[in-house]
């Protein structure tokens, strides 16, 4: 499997000629490692409804025909924006993509889309984490979240090969809580996400990686 971190919380997974992208915030992202115009995907998975996660979903879905998977509120909202194939699911549920399965788990955050011109925020359901099972690999995208005790249960019930964990602080966990999250989730490998994109999120990811390595030994 090819796993690519594209900046902020955006991740692309590719294997066997199929691909999916999670939280495709690329346009307007100063640290984006790809252009939305270059993205090809069979599915777009969304953790929650904030603009820096929904990102280029509508444009990519319209251009590629990718199916979008998110909470029911988010799927409905995106359908109103012209996404032809949007599937709503909820926490605890599992959806079969055909080549992989995605399970929604809880995250502790907020979820809403800001319509600046209207001075209105659209509520888009609960925030989530995503567990993707693809062949023999299990990958967790924790979404935007603070630390919470049920991460222990998630780690006990799923043998996680790779986890994407936010470390940016301010809007999500900071590095210290993210170390505990990694301890509880027990993934074989960790990739820190949701840091450095904006000034409040400045973090030393290398220092986090070193601290995680020390904690494991």
Automatic annotation (TrEMBL):
GO molecular function: hydrolase activity
Pfam families tied to this protein: Lactamase_B_3
InterPro entries: Metallo-B-lactamas (IPR001279), RibonucZ/Hydroxyglut_hydro (IPR036866), UPF0173 (IPR022877), UPF0173_UPF0282_UlaG_hydrolase (IPR050114)
Catalysed reaction equations from the record: 3',5'-cyclic UMP + H2O = UMP + H(+); 3',5'-cyclic CMP + H2O = CMP + H(+)
Coiled coil regions in record: none
The Metallo-beta-lactamase domain, residue ranges: 7-194
The entry's keywords: Hydrolase
SMART domains cross-referenced by the UniProt entry: Lactamase_B (SM00849)
Job description of the protein: Counteracts the endogenous Pycsar antiviral defense system. Phosphodiesterase that enables metal-dependent hydrolysis of host cyclic nucleotide Pycsar defense signals such as cCMP and cUMP.
Family named by the database record: Belongs to the UPF0173 family.
Protein name: UPF0173 metal-dependent hydrolase OMP38_24790
């Amino acid at each position: 499997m090819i796993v690519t971190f594209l900046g902020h919380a955006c991740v692309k997974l590719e294997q066997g000629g199929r691909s999916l992208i999670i939280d495709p915030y690329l346009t307007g992202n100063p640290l984006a490692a790809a252009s939305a115009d270059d993205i090809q995907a069979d599915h777009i998975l969304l953790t929650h409804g904030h603009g820096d996660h929904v990102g280029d979903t509508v444009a990519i879905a319209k251009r590629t025909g990718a199916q979008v998977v998110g909470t029911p509120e988010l799927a409905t909202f995106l359908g109103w924006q012209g996404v032809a194939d949007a599937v709503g699911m909820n926490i605890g549920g599992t959806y079969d993509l055909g080549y992989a399965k995605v399970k929604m788990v809880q995250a502790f955050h907020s979820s809403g889309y800001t319509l600046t011109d209207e001075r209105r925020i659209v509520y888009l359901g609960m925030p989530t984490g995503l567990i993707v099972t693809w062949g023999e690999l299990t990958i967790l995208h924790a979404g935007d979240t603070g630390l919470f005790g049920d991460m222990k249960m998630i780690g006990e019930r799923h043998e996680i090969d790779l986890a994407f964990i936010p470390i940016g602080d301010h809007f999500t966990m900071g590095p210290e809580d993210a170390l505990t999250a990694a301890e509880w989730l027990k993934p074989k490998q960790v990739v820190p996400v949701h840091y450095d994109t904006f000034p409040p999120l400045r973090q030393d990811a290398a220092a986090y990686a070193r601290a995680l390595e020390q904690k494991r030994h």
